[in-house]
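Case study B.
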Amino acid sequence: MTKKPKLVLALLLALTLIAMPLIGACKAAPPPVEKVISVGFFADYTGPVSTTLAPICDGHVDYFRYINEEKGGFNGVKVNFEWYDCKYDLDLCMSTYKRIKDHIMIMSGTYSHAALTWKELAAEDEIPYFSGANPAPAVCPVGDWLYLDYPPYHELMAGLLQWEKAKWTEARPLRVGVILVDSAMGWGTVLGLKDWCADNGIDYVAEEAFPGTALDVSAQLTKIMRANPDILIVAGTVDPASVCIKDARALGVEAEIAVPPYCGSEDLIRIVGPEIAEGVTHLNHHATTMPNYSTEGTKLVQEIFSKYRTGEMASCIYKGVAEGMIIGEAIRLTLEEVPFEELKPADFKYHGFDRMKDFETSGLTGAITYTPTDHRGTHFVFIGDIRDGKPYMLDAHLECPNLDKYIAK
Amino acid sequence: MGLPSGIYNVNYGQDMAIARTKSQWGLLIGFLIFILLLPLYASEYITSFVIVIAVSVIAVHGLNILTGYCGQLSIGHAAFMAVGAYTSAILCSTLGVSFWVALPCAGIAAGLAGLIFGTPSLKVKGLYLAMATLAAQFIIIHIIMHTRSLTGGADGMIVPAPEIGNIVFSSAKSYYYIAVPLCILMTFFAKNLVRTRVGRAFVAIRDNDIAAEVMGVNLYRYKLLAFFIGCFFAGVAGSLWAHYTRIVHPDAYTLMASIWFLGMLIVGGMGSTLAPILGTAFIKILNELVVVYAPVISTAFPALGGQLFAAMGSIVFGVVIILFLVFEPRGLAHRWEIFKSSYRLMPFSY
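Model:
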């Protein structure tokens, strides 16, 4: 290639890189706002978990936009929700946080590893961190500056088994088998569960792991079937869970199939089909679109979505709005006690999150309470099943036991 | 090394000098002073960003020694970083060993892991060796995930900050004085390595391993040595990163991370000590620009949604890598050499 085209192309590349900040400078000037609180958020729009995490960020964005535009903010104070697509990369999270920590009041995100990092970092910098992801070490021991909104997955599963055992009428113990994706999420779902089952009269009869990219899990399911479980827990996100459920139906597994959060949604039904999804029990730490469950919260989510977005609404939008509500409540509580001009990030911990007792998210989650020894937020989650191609609610107040003593071993 | 007009090397020492003239020494010392005094005048953000770059530079130096100089393609480099990170975490958190002891142990552990997974290099090369290192990526992470009693499994481990007496290196400003001097030291080591007999053996193996063997280069010894040294660098980088973020978690050492290290090396230019620094800085700065400006552009064009402009980051990266491979396959280091030569010969740069 001759020199001139090379030079032209090199110039084009350089111009593209220079244009990015210039485009940014061309944004429309925001309307004048006197009182604004900034909340930082680690989003994932293009990373490995973006399918689940992108709608959560959308939910936050839409909720705060709704509050700012329709309600004028909290007591006249608007929220500047700063999201950054960190692609589930801790490098980017660290540099983003260092860049914005001087002006944000609350930091938030839905990354499991970030929750563990910020458990220490938030305490050092005295900026409360609200996490939408809660790996077991995030709750046990409690992080003073780390706040969550649901129990960890292994406690959700214990809650499910507790609920199933309450319905169990046979003389022999309930038998549970687990097939899990070989990932942090999969193993996190069964942490301490075996020991808890042993202490609670439930037989934990089988456990098999499979790679998240597997297209066939018949071998693992066949091994589990030999143990003849009454309940088969499928621990994974929607895609691997779909593979398991399809193979389980094909093999004629008669056990009741139960899936963790993010799986009992329209996505699962769309992938496996209504017939295969029929009867699957699903847990969720937030509401989704269900024909027999409608609250002020679900109506608000649908109203906000239709106001700002088009297309099909992902179920995780509910989680985003619910988390926005919790952060908003912390802001509201803080502004009750601290004048805007004197606000510091630490105030949102002492006067906001720490004061939160039985905060209702209008049916989107369980009531949120933080105590000095427990920052889970709530012990109550939703349980439902799939019927006629739709997720239905069975119980909106499923209580999950505390499994700290089993994972502290 | 290209020399200014009128400067000639008249002995071997001058020929091998890293900085040959007084002005080159001045620039080098000035740069070192600038970089070491950075935390005193830069913000915490810039300081933290430089730490991230420094740690990645150490890892990419290791990959450069292994792949750039010795020609042994490795796409499991992040896994070797994980070995170093977890070794350091286990020694410090579980056994109470000091960070200053755990750091070299992390490098040695990663080096030994590199020796194990580098053994196939004795019989295979190219893409087949890449598959062996890919196996290392999956096997090491699998072991980490399934030895919960030792590694914390899928939940990871909390890692303490380094200490010297009562001084705790928990802030970015203090940790800067661990990461950056170590990065400078290891850059110096890498530069010197390639100027020695060992480095020349690596290059000989890369260029033509059969001819190298005929000339008397022991392929087995030097290939394994390349793996050991390359993975040692990765282990040190892993340990530094673990103690900075205060956690080790398997999600931080994925296959994509290994591929990005290779990307940094390609952009920087394989086979040059400057390449890891330029390539890493370029990719990290590009990453940062995308993260900063995606929401700004999204605010300017709200109807199109945040996802479109966040996705632009991935598009930009792909385009940049392709452009480099097509128009500058020898990377930024080569482009820098051309710039220096043109500057020296100006206005007669023809």
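The longest helix of chain A spans residues 3-25. The remaining cases will be described in the next quarterly update.
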